[in-house]
Design brief:
This protein is an alpha+beta fold. It has a domain of 37 residues. It is 22% helix and 29% strand. The protein has one helix and four strands; from the N terminus they run E-E-E-E-H. The chain is flat, with a radius of gyration of 12 Å. The relative contact order is 0.18.
Length: 59
């Protein structure tokens, strides 16, 4: 059974109009809000967590 992913604007997107949307579930999907038709990137949950940890540690 396929799981529906619910998209939401990433909390990491600023107000500049350069936004991404994220859909979290058994995997995490990321897409450009302004170019949704271009597809998305898919990350395993562990990969996504590692990416966010790395970004947070460099802020």
């Amino acid at each position: 059974m396929a799981t529906e992913h619910l998209w939401h604007k990433s909390s990491y997107s600023g107000g500049s109009g350069s936004c991404v949307e994220v859909a979290e579930g058994s995997d995490t999907r990321v897409r450009d809000t302004q170019n949704r038709e271009s597809g998305h990137l898919t990350f395993a949950s562990a990969e996504w967590t590692a990416l966010l940890s790395t970004v947070a540690s460099t802020e």
